[in-house]
Amino acid sequence: MIRVCIAGNSGHAATVTRALPGLPQVEICGWCRAWPGEPMTEVLEDFEKLGLTPPEYPDYLTMIDTLSPDVLVVDGLFCDHEEMTCQALARGIHVYCDKPLALTLTGLDRVREAAQSSTALLWAMQTARFDPWFYTAKQLIDAGEIGEIRLLTAQKSYRLGQRAPFFRDRAQHGGLIPWVAIHGIDFIRYLYPHAAKTIFAHHSTMANQGYGDLEVTAQLMMTLENGVSAQVSADYLRPANAATHGDDRVRAAGTHGVIEVRDDTVYLINEHNDGSTPVPLQYPPAIFEDFIATLEGHGSGLLDLAESLEDSRLALLARDAADSGCAISV
């Protein structure tokens, strides 16, 4: 059995519990709240649905030192990702951590060094690569359906809703760009896996409904290798009565066509397709299923340590560019 502990549920920890029916070799051996009063809503609801009753521990260090699990799921305050990850890696425990992996570039270097000096695996929860619509777009691009990519745009839009108190304090949540726009950065890097050269960004706390220093709008532009331009927008302005919580979109324009992803659907325009009919979706493994498969030596290769680190690095650089109002060479 692969023994897993869950610390927190402030982000994407439910990608673990929802994968459990397809992972009979995985056992949840313990869980804890990552901050006082953390609701743990999705994880606890999934435990109930699955008939699981793992013990609760007072904190993650007590839990991992008592249980010595194979995997720690890190999903607490975003400011704690760095320390929790480094503590687990130092003990040889594999880490499945929500993004960003740290809130500062210095902290990210610490995580990098901890991962490189450990025998354990570290992944960030970059879930988009495992969404069928983005995966399908990637397969089409790799098959040459739009030729050579020249321009990419990505969008992440969420309802603001009712958020945990720590979202009011950027020292704890890190900012809109490292938490939300990082997905758009990952969209771009997944579809066009070439190095970024420069980043310019802007963000604003205006109209944040009293959420302290939480930015609710952000826009960033990256220049990539081969003269390719990429743009990412992120916001918390999605109306409360919208049909879905989020609205993720990507457009990739190439020398022979265009791919658009919207409403979890893929559209292709090229010499053979007019874009009026959705492209049939292809299905990758679920992200945590692939994490476990990677531990077992047969992962898909969709995500790895280097990709996890680079997404966090670019997001932190973009936030710094927005803070300074200056373009940053990367």
Automatic annotation (TrEMBL):
It comes from the Bacteria. SUPFAM superfamilies: Glyceraldehyde-3-phosphate dehydrogenase-like, C-terminal domain, NAD(P)-binding Rossmann-fold domains. One of its GO terms (molecular function) is nucleotide binding. Residues 135-260 form the GFO/IDH/MocA-like oxidoreductase domain. Coiled coil: none annotated. Residues 50-123 form the Gfo/Idh/MocA-like oxidoreductase N-terminal domain. This is Oxidoreductase. It comes from Butyricicoccus pullicaecorum.
